[in-house]
Amino acid sequence: MEENKKTESGQGIHGHEKSGELSSEFPASIPNKESKMDKINSKGVHCWYGDFHVLRDINMEIKHNTVTALIGPSGCGKSTYLRIFNRMNDLIEGFRLEGEVAIDGKDIFARDVRINELRKKVGMVFQKPNPFPKSIFENVAYGLRVNGVTHKKFIEETVERSLKQAALWEEVKDKLDKNALSLSGGQQQRLCIARAIAIEPSVVLMDEPSSALDPISSAKIEELIWELKAKYTILIVTHNMQQAARVSDKTAFFYIGELVEYDDTKTIFTNPKKEKTQNYITGRFG
Ligand SMILES: Nc1ncnc2c1ncn2[C@@H]1O[C@H](COP(=O)(O)OP(=O)(O)O)[C@@H](O)[C@H]1O
Ligand SMILES: [Mg+2]
Asked: What per-residue confidence (pLDDT) applies to 36?
């Protein structure tokens, strides 16, 4: 249905890179619960910052349309691990990775991968809402514009759809030309989510997306995450155990660069296999 919409109204991007080339490299964001193939696969991943061995032998298989929570004490490597999937760590001097990381079965470090294409498929939301000092509308339209989309109606429809998906539309529909910085923190974060999903990624990475927000905004973001998984595969770093338990299907517990335990969220929180996990989730350290 989304696909139809795109073709009907998308003359503006017709012939543009977005559809054709991208889909051959990274298949489109089609919910595919039946698929036997994992959405994300990391095998024997090690990372270093210079001499510092920050992640050790991380193996994870992540299914389509699931929410995976990454938990663990501060400094254990959660953000580093998250940034692997859109290759954000590549920007850090001295960063090095060994091992295999595939999205939709495609090695994201293969030589023919274009990072811009990868980042269109793998969106990211940060801890602090970081809207651009532009209008609400332009924040959401941004990803389309930088990708060369000019079709006015297509952009308008996409902005509206994204704001609806991010549960923000009702609050902003009458002031789309207002500066995004005039929104509350919670609204700004939902705007950033709308901005991330406007270009139809298939994976959304969230690094503590609600830790800077008040409890009500935080609850809204959680509700939203739960809804978004119908369309996206979501990885979320969180310090909040209750949040991890509420929003995720799977939980991965990291401790000093190692993946200690990775299982169904329910198992991790009710019947973990490792003592370290038990100690962490019961608040004995961290
Ligand atoms: N750009 C960087 N250069 C060097 N060390 C870094 C860099 N970013 C993070 N680190 C170190 O890597 C470790 C893991 O960091 P991070 O992935 O941010 O952990 P977490 O998100 O679990 O708090 C920490 O010891 C941190 O100090
Ligand atoms: Mg972090």
From this structure: 64
C-alpha of residue 76 to centroid of ligand 2, in Å: 8
Q: What is the DSSP letter of 128?
A: S
What separation in Å is there between the alpha carbon of 49 and the centre of ligand 1?
Answer: 8
Give the distance, in angstroms, between the CA of residue 69 and the centroid of all CA atoms in the same chain. 11
pLDDT in tens, 230-249: 999 999 999 999 999 999 99
Q: How far apart are CA 95 and CA 54, in angstroms?
A: 10
What are 42's two structure tokens? Answer: 């990391």
CA distance 45 to 51: 16
Report residue 63 as tokens.
Answer: 């299914």
Phi, psi values for residue 12, rounded to 5°: -60, -30
pLDDT single digits (tens) 116-158: 999 999 999 999 999 999 999 999 999 999 999 999 999 999 9
Ligand 1 mutation target, pool 45, 46, 49, 254, most atoms within 8 A of CB = 49
Task: Read off φ and ψ for residue 91, nearest 5 degrees.
Answer: -80, -10
CA distances (Å), 84 to each of 58, 95, 115, 149, 273, in order? 12, 11, 12, 28, 27
- Does the reported pTM lie above 0.85? yes
For residue 135, the 8-state DSSP code is B
Alpha carbon distance 269, 258 (integer Å): 19
The Cα 173–Cα 259 span in angstroms is 43
pLDDT at 11: 36
CA 9 to chain centroid, in Å, comes to 27
CB atoms within 10 A of CB 158: 25
> What tokens does 161 get?
């759809």
Q: Which ligand sits nearest to residue 208's alpha carbon?
A: 2
Strands 122-125 and 106-107, bridge-based pairing:
unpaired
Give every residue of the chain whose pLDDT is below 50, as ranges. Answer: 1-32
Radius of gyration of the chain (CA): 19
